[in-house]
Please model this.
Amino acid sequence: MKRVLMGFFLSIVFSLSVGLSAFAADKPPQKGETLPVINLPIPKSPGEKSYLGLSGEGTFKIPQIKSNVVIIEIFSMYCPYCQKDAPRINELYSLIENDPDLRKKIKIIGIGAGNTSYEVEVYKKNYTVPFPLFPDKDFVIHKACGEVRTPYFIVVKINEDGSHLIVHSQLGEYPGAQPFLELVLKSSGLR
Amino acid sequence: MKKRRFFHLAWVVGVLSVFTFIPMVYAISDAFKQNIYNIGTLKPVDSVLKVKVGDRAPAFALPSISEEKVSPGQYRGKKNVVLSFVPAAWTPVCSDQWPGYNIVKDIFDQNDAILLGITVDNVPTLFAWTNQMGKLWFPVLSDFWPHGAVAQKYGVLRSNGVSERALFVIDKKGILRYIDVHDINKRPPLEDLVNALEKLNK
Model:
């Protein structure tokens, strides 16, 4: 009987340890913290691979992106506010890419919470999103990010030694390309 | 030997018990602010289908939020019809389903299809709820009175009076060609519906 109870107890501990690593966060990523562990597939598209400064195949972690700052948008194809903001976030991309200095220092990626690859592609095509989008079909990343409502923005500063820090995060309330860029520059210390 | 089996059983039950109590996750749009009522995780399916692929789709006419009555029969010979039953307004997964369909009108058009969204809520509730989704291109129908009668006809009315999360594809001849009574806690992947629509033209 002791062994049975011990087995039951061990199973609970084992399950929790496996489970918690995948779905734990009870709050969204905050300024001053590091990102939860997020593994993303290296894009197949040479253009997106080059944009992120990645090579090869397999997965990568966000701080491996060759950039000083990464803006992460957690979105969903099914989210009306994300849909509404999409063209104005494309403007942010253009503002950055049209600046010879900033384009080397700031990158944008999107993570589609609960979206399949197909759904992410539909969103990308529909709004002509020029930056890489990644599916999070089973909400793994969404859970790791405290099940945020969408759209949710996280600005991460990546240091030369590979360490990183969240310098800004916000739920919705996207103010437009120029004000958001200024916020990114200020919070990351780029300017 | 028996003890060992029991030990293994306890182990498996322990593992499963943890995963059973994982709360439902969903990505709610900020468009709905704090107005979504969390219903928790529900029994995946709680009704018995009364129709099958190949059957003639049961006829009905329901009031829509634009006040006109809408019937799948009015599209007979002209368009394929997708019925999207969602359980209830102002609930988590439902609120994040039709806004996605709202940006893929082109896919429905390419497949000569119209979408009819249906819930058992009354018209004013549906009006307020769908207003948060932006302007929808498809009719939204109220199966409120007699309560859930259409859901009942199709066999997707749950025991607590809401409908299943279900998709039915009816071809131009009025025949059911695809049925997905989905786990109520999850959103059906868009590609499954698109594949079903594309098959109609093959």
In short: The two ends of chain B are 57 Å apart (CA to CA).
